[in-house]
């Protein structure tokens, strides 16, 4: 089954130019065919094509059903890598696993200080459709580490830090029905100043294991662990 994305559903009942072209020109859908749509807000729409136009495919909604919602909020904040392709890969896989929000941190050791969200949002939409989900995670603009950590509230707030002597593993802190925020640092890791700032803001310092991980790999490890508790 192919999913089509229209964020303005149910008010808007036609596909945009790109989705219309894919539906009519590529997939050869015709008037009267049944298609499945999502709004990025957790809803699936079973619909029938009423006008099979490759620039503005119109449809009527036949049925609406809601996606199963997790009993807790999963938020990951990560320092963007210098190579944007690696960050696109992270966003894609994080959406496939399932996450509610992704934030980007400007840290002391960050190699990328400017981040445009357009390409990442397209990757997120594609991954949502590919993994048959109806909820699009909220992607937050790049913020300084200090600004971010002082304004966050969650039942569990963790900072993943490369400290091979730390016996506290993230998996041992996670539990059901607990809003969770996890911070992932840049390749040079968080600075000592940032670690102390996070502690003062109520964050717990946790480990992701005995291996030294790339930023995007650490991010996926954290997202995966959060999804084990559903």
TrEMBL record:
Entry EC number(s): 2.1.1.193
An annotated GO BP: rRNA base methylation
Enzyme class: transferase
UniProt-listed InterPro entries: Alpha/beta_knot_MTases, PUA-like_sf, RsmE, RsmE_MTase_dom, RsmE_PUA-like, tRNA_m1G_MTases_N
GO molecular function, one term: rRNA (uridine-N3-)-methyltransferase activity
UniProt keyword annotations, A-Z: Cytoplasm, Methyltransferase, rRNA processing, S-adenosyl-L-methionine, Transferase
Chemical reaction(s) catalysed: uridine(1498) in 16S rRNA + S-adenosyl-L-methionine = N(3)-methyluridine(1498) in 16S rRNA + S-adenosyl-L-homocysteine + H(+)
Keyword set includes S-adenosyl-L-methionine: yes
Domain of life assignment: Bacteria
Domain Ribosomal RNA small subunit methyltransferase E PUA-like: from-to ranges: 18-62
GO cellular-component term (any): cytoplasm
Domain Ribosomal RNA small subunit methyltransferase E methyltransferase: 69-226
Cell location: Cytoplasm
Function: Specifically methylates the N3 position of the uracil ring of uridine 1498 (m3U1498) in 16S rRNA. Acts on the fully assembled 30S ribosomal subunit.
PANTHER family per UniProt: 16S RRNA (URACIL(1498)-N(3))-METHYLTRANSFERASE, RIBOSOMAL RNA SMALL SUBUNIT METHYLTRANSFERASE E
Family statement: Belongs to the RNA methyltransferase RsmE family.
This protein's name: Ribosomal RNA small subunit methyltransferase E
Species per Swiss-Prot/TrEMBL record: Marivirga aurantiaca
């Amino acid at each position: 089954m192919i999913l089509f994305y229209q964020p303005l559903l149910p008010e808007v009942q036609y596909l945009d130019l790109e989705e219309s072209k894919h539906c009519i020109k590529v997939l050869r859908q015709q008037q009267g065919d049944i298609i499945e749509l999502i709004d990025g807000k957790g809803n699936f729409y079973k619909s029938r094509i009423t006008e099979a136009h490759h620039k503005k495919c119109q449809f009527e909604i036949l049925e609406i059903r809601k996606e199963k919602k997790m009993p807790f909020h999963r938020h990951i904040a990560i320092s963007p890598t210098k190579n944007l392709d690696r960050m696109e890969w992270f966003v894609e896989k994080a959406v496939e696993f399932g996450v509610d929000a992704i934030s980007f941190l400007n840290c002391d050791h960050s190699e990328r200080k400017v981040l445009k969200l357009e390409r990442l949002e397209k990757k997120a939409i594609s991954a949502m459709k590919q993994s048959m989900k109806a909820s699009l995670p909220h992607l937050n603009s790049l913020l300084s580490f200090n600004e971010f950590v002082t304004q966050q509230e969650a039942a569990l707030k963790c900072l993943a830090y490369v400290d091979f002597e730390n016996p506290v593993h993230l998996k041992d802190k996670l539990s059901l029905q607990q809003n969770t925020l996890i911070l992932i640092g840049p390749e040079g890791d968080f600075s000592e100043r940032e670690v102390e700032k996070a502690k003062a803001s109520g964050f717990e310092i946790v480990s992701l294991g005995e291996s030294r991980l790339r930023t995007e790999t650490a991010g996926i490890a954290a997202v995966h662990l959060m999804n084990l508790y559903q």
